[in-house]
């Protein structure tokens, strides 16, 4: 067992078992998916993504026993994403990560069957600032102050994207998500990845279980169409 609340990423409580507690796991618009680039449909009506993250106010970093999460102050519209397939501005509330035990896997979405080492994930000062803070939240249930982090360092310069109707990738797996997956990956060093892999699924007094492979495999597309903001 790797988690709490009845789900995790171990053999007994991992993604293949989630449907027992959350029947929607077998629903018609579950995420993540494998994006087959040749089947994505270019939609010229899709708008460019606009990210207004300059005034963002990160508050804390925490380990919830499933991932590491950075939370933001989302009480106004200073930190928003709009454009794309969205019908209005969406405030940044939090971001979290998924990663694997080795460099060849870890992302939840795959592209043409290829996995990436992490989903969300550049070796520069801002990214180092994030990975250098992970030691403070090594154990499940730990939380630390983490101010003035700008998440733009986690995004590529090119914001071409794919979009499709999907779900949360962790329980309760609600089918209420409009996914926007950026085409261009960014890089993260093996040294930085090892800092993620030093985190634990477990609390300080429990048997140590490394936090790795905390991702859900791709789910069936079930007739959905992936749209692209760019021509192949």
From TrEMBL:
GO terms for cellular component: cytoplasm. One of its GO terms (molecular function) is carbonate dehydratase activity. Pfam families: Carb_anhydrase. One of its GO terms (biological process) is regulation of intracellular pH. Signal peptide: none annotated. Residues 5-230 form the Alpha-carbonic anhydrase domain. InterPro entries: CA_dom, CA_dom_sf, Carbonic_anhydrase_a-class. It comes from the Eukaryota. PANTHER family: CARBONIC ANHYDRASE, CARBONIC ANHYDRASE 7. Belongs to the alpha-carbonic anhydrase family. This is Carbonic anhydrase 7 isoform X2. It comes from Phascolarctos cinereus (Koala). The gene is CA7.
